[in-house]
Amino acid sequence: MNKLLILGAPLLAVLVGCTPQLKPNPNISAYYVTPGAGFYPTHLCGISFAGEACLQMRDGPKVKAVLNGNFLNWLPGLQANQTTIANSGRRSYRLAAEQAVPLLQALVDDNKQRDFERWMDDDDEDD
Prior knowledge:
The protein has 127 residues and is α+β, with helices and mostly antiparallel strands. The chain contains four helices and five strands, in the order H-E-E-E-H-H-E-E-H. The chain has one domain (2-126). A hairpin with a 2-residue loop joins strand 2 and strand 3 (51-56). Helix 2 (61-69) packs antiparallel against helix 4. The radius of gyration is 17 Å and the shape is globular.
């Protein structure tokens, strides 16, 4: 029994880490946000016929612009407090596509910018 418990934690870590990365896709039928806690970061997830995909939510200029620019539009969805259970087993909050699609695009754009900056920093160090 103890061996199963010892193997359970790495298995859970692998399953959480192997969730496909969420990308803009018109086939996504529902979006939700899984709040972070402890070592588990906050994720924006989407569900399509192919399954669940998630993207870690990280601060960035485009994400801030989306959140600040449309804050009043977010209130009804937040006040509805609709929850679901993600594949990770964590409680998650449903997010309307009107809010999720621009947020997802902002996350993707910010991540591309971070990757570009990291690539440029690595290139500068090689010189």
